[in-house]
Amino acid sequence: MDLGLKDRVYVVTGATRGLGNATARELVADGAKVVLTGRDDKRVAEAAAALGPNAVGVAVDNADPDAAARLIAAARDAFGGFDGVLVSVGGPPPGFVADNTDEQWEAAFRSVFLGAVRLARAAAAELEAGGVIGFVLSGSVHEPIPGLTISNGLRPGLAGFAKSLADELGPRGIRVVGLLPARIDTDRVRELDALSADPEATRTANESRIPLRRYGAPEEFGRAAAFLLSPAASYLTGVMLPVDGGMRHGF
After folding, report:
1. Closest to 26 in 3D by CA, of 212, 228, 216
2. What is the spatial distance between Cα 240 and Cα 159, in angstroms, rounded to a whole number?
């Protein structure tokens, strides 16, 4: 199936590793051009180089108020256009209510929530009909994840923002979509498993709760994201797609 991605230009944040990187790889593999971001200059340069000439890297922090304008300008300067954005941000630090400090909440809000809102707002002002804004969220949108209190607080709010944005931008032909990953086999998920006394047992227990009985591969997430961002999904907006091996049982 041709997704219609050839020569379309996307900004993908948090793309030096994990889900953002997996999505950037799939987009480029299908003919798109990508501006990928991260906070570390060296890692950004290495990630872009690994994807070849259809990718450029820009080192930014999502919490930077100027990041959105810089990224959209980079897309236009490097590739002559801008067709969409996928906002992927590393998860806030784990912890329970009593563990997380005000400083951690404020830092996570600026990066995970406000940074995403700024980028979506800037993208909405620049995109034309056929453009798309995507958010990598979490299964915590529907059900809190123990030990991830800050993420549980922020991700559902961002999903609500995305739904509101979909209603506002739909009449202009601009789509807004979200992805809700669960146990995808990324560094972040392995780090969370490693917080337990027995990481191997934790993984086995988690896999037993997944109908497909395994963690997802990053490229499986990347393919789902690339589809939602593509013209092939042109009548999908306001959707929140679980990428979780069947863990969510509700409609």
Report:
1. 228
2. 8
Q: What is the mean pLDDT of residues 23-40?
A: 97
For 177, the enclosing helix (H) or strand (E) is strand 175-181
One-letter amino acid at 74 equals A
Q: Is 222 helix (H, G, I), strand (E, B) or coil?
A: helix
Q: Which amino acid is at 14?
A: G
> How many Å apart are CA 112 and CA 45, to the nearest integer?
23
Angle at 234 between CA 230 and CA 235, to 5 degrees: 145
Can you read off the two tokens belonging to residue 187?
Answer: 């560094």
Write out the H or E segment, with its range, that includes residue 14: none
| Residues ≥6 apart with Cβ < 8 Å to 243 | 179, 180, 181, 182, 184, 216, 220, 221, 224
Residue with tokens 């003919």: 31
pLDDT digits (tens, 9 = 90+) for 1-30: 789 999 999 999 999 999 999 999 999 999
Q: How do residues 177-192 score in pLDDT, each as one tens digit?
A: 999 999 999 988 998 8
Angle, helix 218-229 to helix 18-29, in steps of 10 degrees: 60
Q: Which two tokens mark 249?
A: 């049982």
96 in Cβ contact with 105 (< 8 Å): no
Cα–Cα distance between 59 and 175 in angstroms, integer?
27
232, burial (CB in 10 Å: exposed 0-12, middle 13-18, buried 19+): middle
DSSP labels for 100-142? --HHHHHHHIIIIIIHHHHHHHHHHHH--TT-EEEEE--GGGT
